[in-house]
Amino acid sequence: MPVRVRVATKEDAALIADLSRETFYDAFAAQNTAENMAKFMDEQFTREALMAEVGSKNNIFLLAYIGDEVVGYTRLRQQNQPPELKDANAIEIARIYATTSSIGKGVGKILMEKSLEIAAYLKKDTVWLGVWEHNQRAIEFYTKWGFKKFATHVFLLGDDPQTDWLMAKKI
Q: For the segment 28-71, what is each residue's pLDDT rounded down to a tens digit?
């Protein structure tokens, strides 16, 4: 079955919040302590905070479906650009996640394609993202799409300061 994508609306906020928490936990719980995951989920990645992002200025959310099942999403953000990008007209892929059961079914590919289409439509010249330095599968995926590392920054997961690679691609 093909993967289809649509732009999310404010009415999708609860769905996106629940999907965000599920996919983040599934992606990173095995490599982090239960305490740090719980602290992050309970303090920074709350359902309420995630719901507030949907429909707010400078955020675009895309939902991916296989049939009637939501299998992934992307959050594009047009703010908080890292200083290393200087004056680039950039947009961030702040999140791109697929459900565990849909990995390998083209969800990431279609979400990336649509994200890049939106960036081009918005006349951006650069797309950037952050990825955990130990998430080799994601780094390989982004590299395949032409993203290159340009800096690092610290991502605090609970009490654990982790290093994210910042990667960018010219449009």
A: 999 999 999 999 999 989 999 999 999 888 999 999 999 999 99
Q: How far is CA 151 from the centre of its chain?
A: 18
Q: Contact at 8 Å (CB) between 142 and 167?
A: yes
Q: Which amino acid is at 137?
A: R
- The HSE-up count of residue 118 (CA atoms within 13 Å, CB side) is 24
**What does the DSSP 8-state code read for residue 139?**
H
Cα 48 from Cα 139, distance rounded (Å): 29
State the Cα–Cα distance between residues 112 and 95, nearest whole angstrom. 11
Residue 51 · residue 18 · CB < 8 Å: no
CA distance linking residue 96 with residue 111, whole number of Å: 7
Dmax over CA atoms of the chain, in Å, equals 42
Q: Which of 25, 73, 121, 142 is catalytic?
A: 142
Q: Count Cβ atoms within 10 A of the Cβ of residue 80 and give its class: 0-12 exposed, 13-18 middle, 19 or more buried.
A: exposed
Neighbours of 20 (CB within 10 A): 22
| pTM recorded for the entire structure | 0.93
Domains and CATH numbers, the chain: 3-170 (3.40.630.30)
73 noted as active-site residue: no
- Lookup result for tokens 């299998």: 71
